[in-house]
Write a structure and sequence with these properties.
43% of the residues lie in helices and 15% in strands. It is elongated. Helix 1 packs across helix 7 and helix 3 (60-74) packs parallel to helix 7 (163-180). The strands form 3 sheets. The protein has a 5-stranded parallel beta sheet with strand order 2-1-3-4-5. It has 2 domains: 5-185, Rossmann fold; 206-323, Roll (CBS-domain), CATH 3.10.580.10. The chain has helices spanning 5-34, 37-46, 60-74, 84-87, 114-122, 137-141, 163-180, 187-193, 197-202, 225-235, 255-260, 288-298, 317-323, and strands at 53-56, 79-81, 100-104, 127-131, 144-147, 218-220, 239-243, 249-254, 281-282, 302-307, 310-316. Strand 4 (127-131), helix 6 and strand 5 form a beta-alpha-beta unit. It is α/β, with parallel strands linked by helices. The chain contains 13 helices and 11 strands.
């Protein structure tokens, strides 16, 4: 089969893309193997209680620095990016002696970082450097230097920052995740910093969407079914909780229970003759996604939320829609 010029060109494009990814993945493998006690020292210095991390760099290093600052902030470590050029024109005032500096430079000789280096030494602000050059000016000034391996860039001319920036970014991610492990950071904390988008939806808790108080369908044991039906119809959840005089859960009546117990004298029966005495109940702090999974597994559309065996709320499958997890 004869290959056309278009086919040959497409093949070269795909091969270039694959080789770039392979080159960067190999560089990351070298980087992972190179981590040592300096990485631990960097995390311990950056993760100091009540300190902020100021991240900076210029050019491609600056773009990576912005992402690292955002990642640190997302895992509960206060961090922000300061542009090195703006720093020398007043933004140094954003940095306090209680902060920590994380500076990025491939060569370690970036002139624009000089004002931040001088400022850090003058006011004894701890400094971590990420660079490829162990003998650079930046490395000599920093309290801790993380050097990534010098490997060829994926660019065929060896000029465009590719493997180097990939390693910079990976080091930043590694610092952020390692910093997370130094504190008690839970999924609930994560949602605090990610209330929007899919992450926020995935981490929504039942307590944020359940119906409580006057919206909770509850009747006492001994209540006649004719009164119970009125309450079920009023609330519209298709179920009602049955409690004893102490407010403890005795059972649940659903639309399905009504159908299973249908007879001519049903309205005059007491609720306990119809109720399911072992209903499925959940806690308020579980994820909405978990609650939806339980509904699907049990083929039900509502769940009562309990605390100390007392109903405190109800969740309907429509609330899962409202939470955006369906």
């Amino acid at each position: 089969m004869t290959m056309t010029a278009t086919t040959i060109n497409a093949h070269k494009i795909l091969e270039a893309g694959r080789q770039t990814i392979i080159a960067e993945s190999e560089a990351l493998s070298f980087l992972a193997a190179s981590l040592d006690e300096k990485f631990t020292a960097a995390v311990e210095l950056l993760a100091t209680q009540n300190s902020r991390i100021i991240v900076s760099g210029i050019g491609k290093s600056g773009h990576v620095a912005r992402k690292i600052a955002a990642t640190l902030a997302s895992v509960g470590q206060p961090a922000f990016f300061v542009h090195p050029a703006e720093a020398s024109h007043g933004d140094l005032g954003m940095i306090t002696p209680q902060d920590r500096l994380l500076l990025l430079s491939h060569s370690g000789e970036t002139a624009e970082l000089k004002s931040m280096l001088d400022y850090s030494r003058r006011f004894h602000i701890p400094l971590v450097a990420i660079t490829a050059k162990e003998n650079s000016n930046l490395a000599s000034v920093a309290d801790v230097t993380l050097c990534y391996p010098i490997v060829p860039e994926a660019c065929p001319m060896g000029l465009a920052p590719t493997t180097s920036t990939a390693m910079m970014l990976a080091l930043g991610d590694a610092l952020a995740i390692a910093t997370l492990h130094t504190r008690s950071f839970s999924p609930t904390d994560f949602r605090t910093f990610h209330p929007g988008g899919n992450l926020g939806k995935q981490l929504s808790r039942v307590r944020d969407f359940m119906h409580t108080g006057d919206r909770l369908p509850v009747v006492l044991k001994g209540t006649l079914m004719k009164e119970c039906l009125i309450k079920m119809s009023y609330f519209g959840f298709g179920c009602v909780a049955i409690v004893d005089e102490d407010g403890l859960m005795s059972g649940v009546i659903t639309d399905g229970d009504l159908r299973r117990h249908m007879h001519t004298e049903l309205l005059n029966d007491a609720v306990e003759t119809v109720m399911n005495p072992t209903p499925t109940m959940i806690a308020a702090d579980i994820l909405m996604a978990e609650a939806l999974a339980i509904m699907q597994e049990k083929s039900i559309t509502s769940l009562f939320i309990s605390a100390h065996n007392k109903p405190i709320g109800i969740l309907h499958i429509h609330d899962c829609l409202r939470a955006g997890i369906i």
